[in-house]
């Protein structure tokens, strides 16, 4: 099975940018869709963005954050990236990446239950 590992979190000022990375260990990431989710203290885990398996031709974003996010994958490095721009204090959360198999046409990229494999998370803190 695949084990996602996040990195790239940290402290950034409001309006700044961060690029999170999600690397795979155990197996190649190519066969898996990768989703990004976040969880702030006292809140439920919520969808941020996702990229489809293979070439990553399909991307999906939470409506409220569309325009500030870019998700991409580099299969030569077995890594998926989440570029976050114009960050706001309300973006402060632990960010998780997760992997799931998106075959069959019924895969919902925005649901946590679509992804059986999860990383440990990386903290993103945006100061005002």
Highlighted features:
globular, mainly beta, 48% strand, four-stranded antiparallel β-sheet, 0% helix, 128 residues
Parts with pLDDT < 50 across at least 5 consecutive residues: none
Order of helices and strands: EEEEEEEEEEE
Give the helix/strand class: mainly beta
**Residues in helix, %:** under 10%
**What is the percentage of strand-forming residues?**
over 45%
Mean pLDDT: 94
Sum up the overall morphology in one term: globular
> What radius of gyration results from the CA coordinates?
14 Å
Number of strands: 11
The main β sheet shows up as: 7 strands, mixed
How far is it from the N-terminal to the C-terminal residue, by CA? 40 Å
| Subunit arrangement of the protein | single chain
How many individual helices? 0
Short description:
By secondary structure, the chain is mostly beta strands. The protein contains no helices and eleven strands.
Structure description:
- It is a single chain.
- The chain is built from no helices and 11 strands.
- By secondary structure, the protein is mainly beta.
- Strands 2, 4, 5, 6, 9, 10 and 11 form a 7-stranded mixed sheet that branches.
- The radius of gyration is 14 Å and the shape is globular.
- The termini are far apart.
- The model has no long low-confidence stretch (mean pLDDT 94).
């Amino acid at each position: 099975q695949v084990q996602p590992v996040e990195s790239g979190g940290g402290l950034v000022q409001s309006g700044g940018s961060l690029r999170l990375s999600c690397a795979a260990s155990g197996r190649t990431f190519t066969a898996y869709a990768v989703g990004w989710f976040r969880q702030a203290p006292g809140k439920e885990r919520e969808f941020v963005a996702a990229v489809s398996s293979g070439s990553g031709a399909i991307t999906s974003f939470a409506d409220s954050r569309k325009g500030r996010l870019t998700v991409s994958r580099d299969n030569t490095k077995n890594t998926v990236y989440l570029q976050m721009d114009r960050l706001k204090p309300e973006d402060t959360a632990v960010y998780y990446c997760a992997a799931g198999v998106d075959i069959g046409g019924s895969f919902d990229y925005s649901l946590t239950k679509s992804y059986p494999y999860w990383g440990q998370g990386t903290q993103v803190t945006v100061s005002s």
